[in-house]
Amino acid sequence: MVAEGRQRIDKWLFFSRAVKSRSLAAKLVVAGRVRINRDKAAQASDLVKPGDVLTITLERRIFIWKVLGTGVRRGPAEEARTLYEDISPPAPKGEAPPDAIPALREAGSGRPTKKERRQTDRLLGED
């Protein structure tokens, strides 16, 4: 029996559109990527209530959300945004995002032309 005003963390993550399915939400919790009020959520059945602060790690990004309410269904995005308040610190402007891939070659060098590829093939003896 669920206490009034509380909801399972896997259902809440699904209703808030943090993940695509409840099974993915359960895997996220079991993997230790969700914290409820700074404590790791151990099971998908852990309960959240309005006022709890969740720290969620998703794909090299960290979200800090304050729970504002429990969900009834997985509705549109506008409805999902009413379930939480994003209190994550703002990303510094002007910096590249942490998951950006640095350039692997010098600026302006670009892709080799067909002529350049043929020359390197001849040098390597690959006719």
Query: Which percent range fits the helix content?
Result: 25-40%
Low-confidence stretches: none
Main sheet strand line-up: 3-2-5-6-7
What class would the helix/strand composition place it in?
alpha+beta
Mean of residue pLDDT? 86
Biggest pleated-sheet summary: 5 strands, antiparallel
Order of helices and strands: EHHEEEEEHEH
Radius of gyration using CA atoms only? 23 Å
Beta-strand fraction estimate: 15-25%
Tally of contiguous helical segments: 4
Distance between the termini: 74 Å
Q: Looking at the structure, what is the overall shape?
A: elongated
| Count of strand segments | 7
Overview of this protein structure:
- The protein has a 5-stranded antiparallel sheet with strand order 3-2-5-6-7.
- It starts with 6 loop residues before the first strand and ends with a helix.
- The radius of gyration is 23 Å and the shape is elongated.
- It is of the alpha+beta class and 127 residues long.
- Helix 1 (9-15) crosses helix 2 (22-30).
- Strand 5 (53-58) and strand 6 form a beta hairpin.
- The model has no long low-confidence stretch (mean pLDDT 86).
- It has 4 helices and 7 strands.
